[in-house]
Amino acid sequence: MPLFLTNITLFLYFLISLFLLLLSVVSIICKSKKLDFIVFLIIGIMMVCFYGLRFPGNSDTRMYLQGFDSLSSLDSFMWSSGFYVLMKSIKIINNSHDAYIFLSSLYFVLAFMLVGILYCKDRYYKSLFLLTCFYSWSVLDLAVNTYRQGIAIPFIILGVYFLNSKKNILAVVAISIALTIHWGSSVIVALYFIAIYLSKHLRLLKIVTFFTLMLFTLSFFINFEFAGSLSKSSLISSLQVLFVGVDLTSKIDAYLGGGVVGARFYDMPSLQRLYFSGEIYIAILIFSFFFLTRKAKDPIITSGNFVMIYSFFTIVAFYGVVLISMTWFIRNFYWAVPITPVLYVLILQYYEKENVKKHHFLLLLFVIFQIAFSIETFWRAPLIDLVYPY
Question: Which residues, in sequence order, are CB contacts of 115 under 8 Å at separation 6+?
Fold first, then answer.
């Protein structure tokens, strides 16, 4: 049962989000950039309130609050330098727990709003982009639980935007911020350069697309223990010589092959597997079908913008699929999920230019899907029950 049926606060947020979604659709149909931007700002305020006025009921937030309380010097800080600067900036303003939760949520939402402003530049899809982020239960987890990864992701996406726009200095700044907040960003940045190569070789990109979709589909039925095998491979042992004084083998084995009850894909029953991976799997299905059915001379293919972002999404999704057997596998997919609203918007923009009737139909279908899927996932998420217990 959706949690907003038993919680008046959640029900109010649900109604507000529906009203804002309606206004977002109106702004697209009327092609009103002004209305879209106003709705975009209101959605941002709603998201800040939703994330920032929550109860600190989940484990990661409580851990961050302990670090916030004991914050002193960078040398004694348990996380990275970028996250230290973030916490320090909040503590200078106000050192209360409420201030940390609210201001960290403000930073998070502002970062995603900047992504929407740049990727939907001169268009009227900003509000739809941001509301799609809000309805994502993966983004919810990034905002209220796995926050370090959550605040790093928009800076990676911004870095990709700046690199594609040949704004290399801004790209370095954005990517550097991501790297100083979460170490996992380094892997995703490396994958971006693979994505550049794939975007220039469409036949190879189609092969990777098909292989990713096939492997992901089969993973629901066949146990692929790639992560466990990788953690015990000779490659990891050979890398140990580069990390003197660090037990790299045990660290990687714990990361890739370590067991936490209930946190591994293959420990879950079928429906639970679908719940945790459905959001990214559906996105892969839709984007793969769209890409594979486009002709080589199609404007959306020749322009390069869609192909580059799609290529990046696909290689990150492939990375998540290969490591699907690892503990907390879903967090690998989190790197890809926030890219999906960008691709959804690009596809809708494409159909708006090609076929107005089809665009209106797909827009309506997308809105219905967002509402229905969020009711089945976002509004039922155990995380919401923890942060809005009453």
Answer: 129, 154, 157, 158, 161, 338, 342
pLDDT digits (tens, 9 = 90+) for 93-130: 999 999 999 999 999 999 999 999 999 988 999 999 99
| CA angle in degrees (0–180, nearest 5) for 84-164-104 | 25
| Burial per residue of 317-339, b for 16 or more beta-carbon CB atoms within 10 angstroms, e otherwise | bbbbbbbbbbbebbbbbbbbbbb
- CB count within 10 Å of CB 223 equals 9
pLDDT, tens only, 312-354 = 999 999 998 888 777 667 888 899 999 999 999 999 999 999 8
User: Are 231 and 255 spatial neighbours (Cβ–Cβ below 8 Å)?
Assistant: yes
Quick one: tokens of 178? 């991501």
Q: How many other CB atoms sit within 10 Å of the CB of residue 31? A: 11
Distance CA 346, CA 270 (A): 32
Q: DSSP letter at 242?
A: G
* Long-range residue pairs from 255-262, CB within 8 A, at least 24 positions apart, any chain: 255/231, 255/326, 255/327, 256/227, 256/228, 256/230, 256/231, 256/323, 256/326, 256/327, 257/227, 257/228, 257/231, 257/232, 257/326, 257/327, 258/327, 259/327, 260/327, 260/328
3-state helix, strand, coil in the chain (%, to 5): 75, 0, 25
**What's the mean pLDDT when you consider all of the chain?**
88
Predicted TM-score (pTM) of the model is: 0.90
**CA end-to-end span of the chain:** 16
The pLDDT value given to residue 305 = 84
Q: What is the pLDDT of residue 161?
A: 93
The CA distance from 359 to 114, in Å, is: 26
Q: Which two tokens stand for residue 157?
A: 């996406």
Rg (CA), the chain: 21
